[in-house]
């Protein structure tokens, strides 16, 4: 999975030009921590033509399906991560990828963590940007990437009944 992401980054650099890619802040990163403040993964964000592609690698997580969202505040205060606020929702829509009145800009498919407690995944998020605008992940209060304890039902407002927040990372501009 990471090889595919690396190839995409290389293609973006070749297509757009390294100078333009970096100058426009079209990359981001989030270091994910658990409720004890221990590092449990990393996410990389790359702006593309159809939205922002997020590549995650996590470890030491409970196995199963987990809700996976972008939240509206760039704070990850342990132990409950409530400081990250609600889902990122600049268009004031309902929650859920299956909701006819949705979805939040920060709604994403569930992430599956294997029995070993690890996963790598790549998700395209079409309703956000790393550039300017009200749907930018680089808002004045910042934004955060969260993983929840349970599966998101993709319908129930406001958070899909996905349970406690078990991992969080502040989304920052790439270096």
Tell me briefly what this model is.
With 175 residues, the protein is mainly beta. It has one domain (2-173): Sandwich (Immunoglobulin-like), CATH 2.60.40.200. The chain has two helices and ten strands; from the N terminus they run ααββββββββββ.
Notes on the structure:
- By secondary structure, this protein is mainly beta.
- It has one domain: Sandwich (Immunoglobulin-like).
- It is built from two helices and ten strands.
- The strands form two sheets. Strands 1, 2, 3, 5, 7, 8, 9 and 10 form an eight-stranded antiparallel β-sheet that branches.
- Strand 2 and strand 3 form a beta hairpin.
- The protein is globular.
- The two termini are 22 Å apart.
How are the SSEs placed, and which strands pair?
Layout: H1 2-16, H2 18-23, E1 27-34, E2 39-48, E3 51-58, E4 64-66, E5 68-71, E6 111-113, E7 119-125, E8 144-148, E9 165-170, E10 172-173
Antiparallel strand pairs: 1-2, 1-9, 1-10, 2-3, 3-7, 4-6, 5-8, 8-9
């Amino acid at each position: 999975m990471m090889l595919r992401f690396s190839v995409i980054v290389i293609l973006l650099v070749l297509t757009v030009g390294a100078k333009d890619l970096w100058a426009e802040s079209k990359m981001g990163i989030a270091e994910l921590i658990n409720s004890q403040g221990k590092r449990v993964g990393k996410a990389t964000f790359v702006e593309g033509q159809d939205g922002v592609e997020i590549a995650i690698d996590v470890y030491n997580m409970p196995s199963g399906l987990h809700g996976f969202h972008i939240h509206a505040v760039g704070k990850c205060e342990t132990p409950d991560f409530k400081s990250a606020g609600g889902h990122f929702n600049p268009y004031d829509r309902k929650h859920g990828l299956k909701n006819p009145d949705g979805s939040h800009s920060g709604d994403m498919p569930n992430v599956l963590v294997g029995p070993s407690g690890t996963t790598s995944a790549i998700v395209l998020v079409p309703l956000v940007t790393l550039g300017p605008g009200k749907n930018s992940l680089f808002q004045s209060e910042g934004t955060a990437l969260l993983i929840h304890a349970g599966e998101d039902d993709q319908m129930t407002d406001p958070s899909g009944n996905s349970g406690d927040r078990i991992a969080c990372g502040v989304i920052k501009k790439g270096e």
